[in-house]
Fold:
Amino acid sequence: MIGDAVERSLRSPQVLISVSELFSNAAGSRMPDVQPDLLTDEVARRVVAACPTSALKVDEAAGRTHLILNYGECIACSRCVAAGNGAFRYAERVARCGVRKKALIRRWDIQRRAEVVQDEPALSQAAEQIRSLVGRALNIRQVDAGSCNGCAGEILALTNPYYDLERFGIHFVASPKHADMLLVTGPVTRNMAAALKLAYDAVPSPKLVVAVGACGCSGGIFAGSHAVVGPVDAVIPVDGYIPGCPPTPSMLLTGIAHVLRPLLLPSRRRTA
Ligand code: SF4
Ligand code: SF4
Structure:
């Protein structure tokens, strides 16, 4: 019987997501994107009222009205898509993964119906970053600082044969002493704060830290709870933030690649 299963598995076609399909792919994440041409003052105020985490805000300054979307606070609840009268839809790609905290924020001028700042990392560049990981080695220790396990489940999916994280030379390790990077999920609960700090101190320098999910970026739905200290950067320094609730495996890998980018650029490579 086991032989039949192995035979069937060997005969089935190979299914492995390609790099171009993979990078920044947010399909299924329910992260919102804005259609600026359909954005009105009324829609903006309606979605802001519907948003449970204040990820959406209206900002009025110098006679202009801006709609602000902070991906770091977005829990992908879909309420803005339901209330947005077509101006909000699910994002197919979210390139803002592994970026600094400020870069998680997008802003649209409602009168001009256009995005104000477009410093989104180029998608082709993100793909190149992922490709450049091949043949290298990165050891990651995942730390659950108090998550619901949603983000952890997506991280686990990275290791399955469809995403095949190991083809990029990335491995999960059991001890922070063997790690180059901490991938931290969850808001940091009071019970986990000391353990997170200990894990950070145990990683040999130079080390990288990536905060995962709305909880890791901002505290998410648990922000302000008496049981949490705050987001990951309330306890340890963070190099990059990956939004989502939870982020897709593709967003996770894009974020990891983005954080590694300064180390992979030819000009920064050690030439010794
Ligand atoms: S999907 Fe995100 S931005 Fe939209 S209402 Fe929910 S939390 Fe707010
Ligand atoms: S970001 Fe969402 S999925 Fe991830 S730990 Fe927080 S609540 Fe769970």
